[in-house]
Specification:
Bound molecules: 2-oxoglutaric acid
Distance between the termini: 58 Å
Strand content: 15-25%
Low-confidence stretches: 1-5, 54-58
CATH architecture: Sandwich
Oligomer: single chain
CATH topology: Jelly Rolls
């Protein structure tokens, strides 16, 4: 190799190293165009297929089904459970209003999350780690160890269960982040447990007609389940048509509670073969079915593909609270939902297999879930 070739590779490596520091860092250095590292192949760009009507970008906004949590917990529960069930079957998503978490708790979480990304890079970088199980992890893109093309997102992931073991490792700056995140994680966990109970009831697995012990043992496993809070930061992007904040993916867990930016849209879900933009509703959570719930419900509830667009003039923050069963627990179709007419459609799995899978390959679309499907043809 000639000395100049060596220098060329060293330059490329140095440039690649820069991208691993995150999009915020890149923007702080001042850019007017999207670097090659973030440019998606034409068919994966936000407007691909727009002209032939297959996908839509800005022209199709979607009001997700709305579930009123107050009704779910009140005298209208039966009707609300029916709406929840239909939303999980047809959209895999719904917006939860009247959820009981105060706007002070949610806005403090957003505010402290935003402040974290405003810290000098040296402070943020203390939490950079390749360890997927790290209790606090600052990173960029979707899976920066595997992604060939990077996406326009930085994140802070906080492990929340058990809180006492994770908390000492969370960022100590900004000074109020820990307190805001503790409140937020406790309140979203409580809300999640109420939603789990409703979800299991809508599937006919717990409820008034079951014994107290039966209901309790079901719910105990969920209570001990995993929770990760992800603060997503999408800086404004000079060429938003060339890249994505997050590529098309489904969530691995049971349910995700997402606090969307109330002012800046960006979340798109795949619905009836089109990409549609979710209209934010102030003071609501976007709730979505994850892969584990699709498996647990034996395919009745759908873990739906979604992605995030970026914006030319405004940065965007979202906070996802991802919940599932304990890391060690087997994820399988509930035996009570399987019979001759509804055969088992998914192999048993667990969180460790998911981690192994994403560590070994680029996570794209629903490929983990696809790998768990049983071939029922001719059986
Ligand atoms: O930022 C958003 O609206 C969506 C985030 C998301 O899809 C995720 O955290 O998995």
């Amino acid at each position: 190799m000639s000395p100049s070739m060596g220098a060329y590779h060293a330059d490329e490596e140095e440039e690649d190293h820069q991208f691993h520091k995150g999009v915020k860092h890149l923007c702080e250095k001042g850019i007017t165009e999207v670097p090659k590292k973030y440019i998606l192949p034409v068919l994966e760009r936000p407007n691909a297929g727009k002209d032939d009507g297959i996908f839509s970008n800005n022209d199709h906004n979607l009001m997700l089904p709305v579930i009123d949590f107050a009704q779910l917990q009140g005298s209208n529960r039966v009707q609300a459970l029916h709406s929840l069930s239909k939303a999980c079957e047809e959209y895999g998503f719904f917006q939860l209003i009247n959820h009981g978490i105060s706007s002070e708790v949610t806005s403090r979480m957003v505010q402290e999350g935003r402040k974290f990304f405003e810290l000098p890079f040296e402070e943020r970088s203390k939490y950079m780690s390749k360890d997927m199980f790290s209790p606090a992890r600052y990173g960029t893109s979707f899976n920066q160890n595997k992604d060939r093309v990077f996406c326009w997102r930085d994140f802070l992931k906080l492990g929340c269960h058990p809180l006492s073991e994770n908390l000492p490792f969370w960022p100590s700056s900004p000074s109020e982040l820990r307190e805001a995140a503790v409140n937020y994680s406790e309140q979203t966990k409580f809300l999640y447990m109420m939603l789990v109970e409703a979800t299991l009831e809508s599937l006919g697995l717990v409820g008034n007609t079951k014994s107290g012990n039966e209901n309790e043992s079901y719910l105990k496993e969920f209570e001990d389940g995993s929770q990760i809070i992800v603060v997503n930061c999408y800086p404004s992007c000079p060429e938003p048509d060339l890249t994505l904040g997050m590529p098309s993916h489904s969530d691995y867990g049971f349910l995700t509670l997402l606090l969307q930016d109330e002012l800046v849209k960006g979340l798109q879900i795949q619905h009836r073969g089109r990409w549609v933009t979710v209209e934010p509703i102030p003071n609501s959570f976007v709730v979505n079915v994850g892969d584990h719930l699709e498996i647990f419900s034996n395919g009745r509830y759908k873990s739906v593909l979604h992605r995030v667009l970026v914006n030319p003039s405004q940065s965007r923050i979202s906070i996802a609270s991802l919940h599932s069963l304990p890391f060690s627990c087997a994820i399988r179709p509930s035996p009570k939902l399987i019979n001759d007419a509804n055969r088992k459609r998914y192999k048993d799995t667990d969180f460790a297999s998911f981690m192994e899978y994403i560590t070994a390959c680029e996570h794209k679309n629903k490929n983990f879930l696809e790998s768990r499907k049983l071939d029922l043809i001719g059986k």
